[in-house]
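User: Here's a chain of 398 residues. Predict its fold as tokens.
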Amino acid sequence: MSRDIVDQSIPLPPDTAGGPMPTPATEADASIEQKIDPRYAKSESYLSLVWRRMRRSVMGMIGITLVALLLIVAVFADFFAPIDPKASNIGFGPPDTLSFSAPDGSFSLIPVVYPLSEGGELDPITFQPIIGPDYDNPTELGFFVQGYSYQLLWVIPANIHLFGPTDPTKTVHFLGTDKFGRDILSRGLVGSRISLTIALVVTLITTVVGTLVGITSGYLGGRFDSWTQKFVEFVLAFPQLPLYLALTSLIPITAPSNVFIAFVIGVMAVLGWAQLSREVRSKTLALARIDYVRAAIAVGSPDSRIITRHILPNVMSHVIVAVTLAVPSVVLLESFLGFLGFAVKPPLISWGLMLQDTSSFSVIGSYPWILSPVIFVLITVFAFNALGDGLRDAIDPY
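Assistant: Prediction complete.
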């Protein structure tokens, strides 16, 4: 009787009744399976993995933010420019200073700028009229104000600007004016279109040509690779700077602006693809010996499919980083050639063309704000270099 009571009060576990005893390992596996949510059990894609690593890079996120802002400013440059970039005022005018004080000295929530004007007194040394702020005619500033007319996205007529003077008849110069009295800030914003367009188009052409030539040369090998690399070495052997100056000087000054820019882009692209081609070729030589490429060759896959489906995706990580690091080089090259007068001709605007006013040391010493276009170049170079460093760490962390 007591044995029956014991058997009924202490039931055996199901595992011990008809199977082996549970071990600690199987219990741990069961607990892990219970904790895993099927919704999160999917494998992470390559792009999401790169983006997760990219978000951890402070410099990479700063770079991608600045690059996005630069592209937005370049597209909507007229909207951000407060003054007509072609309008003339006082030559070599100093930058205007924001003030939050009213003419009577009280605090004002609306920022104003007191324009410079010639006073009635003369300088005792130079006998020139003394220039000072005109407190009787302040220029009020605001956001989304009316100004000069332009075409938004080159199609839509508009005259609204992000910031500027509330009175369209007045002017304000936050970075001063050049020798012709044109606003440096507005010209720098509008000039970003030409400078960034040249940099992006040249980088696109050199990337496509260099990648295709490098992959084809490295994969096919043999005599084709030998002759291709001799031609690449021939291109790299040229002294680039004298050749740039010689080729750009061939086009006449009277040529249309679009033709001149296209010629400059063509010259930069012809001399810029060779280095990337050699880098991609070295990557292709290493990938061509991998098992899955040999398996594709063994089953009879055509060369075009092997190059586009197996080798190119594995080379793209290096190509993307090379692109982000090539854009600053082209921006610096365009600025240098523009400074020498071999890149962009008036009436077009670019950062290099704006730096022509700094060719005289006396001008820099007397009017240091004329160096303001250097700020745009520095920001662009820093933005793309930071983006390239972040992408390099995210794509290949090892």
